[in-house]
Write the structure tokens for this entry.
Amino acid sequence: MSPVNPPRSSSLIDAIRGPLMLITLGALMAADQMGNIGIDRTWPALLILFGLLKVAAYLGGGQHE
Amino acid sequence: MRRRSLVGPLLLIGIGALFLARNVMPELPLLDYLAQYWPFLLILWGGLRLLEIAVWAAGSKPLPAHGLSGGEWLLVIFLCIFGTSLHAVRGFSTWFPRSGIEWGGLEVFGQSYDYPVMAETAATGNPRIVVEGIRGRVRVSGGDAAIVKVSGRQTIRAVDQATADRSHDEANIEVRNEGGQIVIRPTTLAPDSSTTSREPEVKGRRLINITRRITADIDIQLPKGSSLVARGRDTDLDVSALAGSVDVNGDNTTVRLENIGGEVRLDVSGSDMVRAVSLRSNFELKGRGNDIDLEKIAGQVSVSGSWSGLIQMRDLAKPVRWNGLQTTMSFQGLPGDLRMTIGDISASRILGPLRIDSQSKDIDLADTTGSTTITLQRGDVRLSSSSTPMAEMDVRLQSGSIELTMPDKAKFNLNAVTENGNTTNDYGGELRDQDNGRRGHSLTGSTGGPTIELRLNRGDIQVRRGAPMAALPNLPALKDAPKAAPPSAVAQ
């Protein structure tokens, strides 16, 4: 679909952040539409996940470089 | 070298397959599947990307800087909007309606299925009746029989008969005697309903979910001594001939009351119209909405909130308090009538003491008895009195105009001052017109009556002599005045 950026210093975690966020979003949406827990209550999980991945990327980057 | 992701082509293939399936098997409810399972598309998409990246990483190929590009995120957002909309339209929605968006226009999908409603239970004494969660038209009336009887129909919008039947099983209107009160509501709402989750919030959502597609048109007959409590949304409620109290709490609820004996308390929002005629006790209204029409109320009237349409009142026996966003108003009774819109108030025969406090209104009052106090930022004030004796008046206005019409031989002690403007004396020799130079004009005079104080910061004051106090019901004094109003030349 979209051109993939040139390699440079991209780490694995940076690369999987998007897909992981997407999967989580899909899961939350699914939970919402099955009628159990609304996305209006679960959306902070996305922020937390994003933050965790950022932290992981930071730690990983610190080790590699 | 620029590498392309596999997900794009896969998505294209998927969409192509979907349309093909739709063309080959038109009876397949693809849209329903899509409406229900679209979040799994997101998961699938993310999973594929993840797999792809894992494969690249394993093959020591260069990894992309970002797993998903901006364009892809945009597509995800569109998919979310599309999915939730489809979900809402298909009637599966749990959270969309809670944001208050009406999908009424979109509910043209599917067909209407009608189901008869018929339920009753015996009621003794003066029962308390609760009507809950019924969307549509509800007409409640008191009668002599000692039964509570519900009749009418429910209309369910659904894609097919089976879905409609299922909704009807869950939302069938029932009448139950619960701890001294009789409750009329869809089965889903019942506390022990097996079709709902234990969690109250989920239950609430489920209820909205189901009732959204169902409208009722029912008549409820009650023993006339009953008192009524109604809660719900999107209800058009008609109540007549009850001796007990009426409490209504509703969103987007229109209320019409007639011939009610007990106290009436309404708390409504988004109400198109509230109408109350022939109440024998107090009336209290809170909330937001458009029109209000009050007539023949024997008790006190209290209205607060934001009402933007046409407000009409007639024949109110007891004190009235109006507490709006822009205007507060109180008076002791209204033998005549009052009409108010967002920009003006006109009334005749208010029983004072009358007090109006507002930002911006044109006010036209005829034949107020008792004192009048008006505090106003902007507007044109016309006060006329066709009968003696005069009552005290105190009008304070920032900018606009004041026109006072008093009957012949009235007794008054007038002090009218405009700081930037002119005064016009059409009353006669009893008044003295004075030019205070840069401090404006004043009009004073006394024939030994109550104090009339008119204070205007910017604008003109005119005092006229009305026609004699003969049989002139409302306002004609102004029309019959000898001179037309002079053009307002404001001295700045």
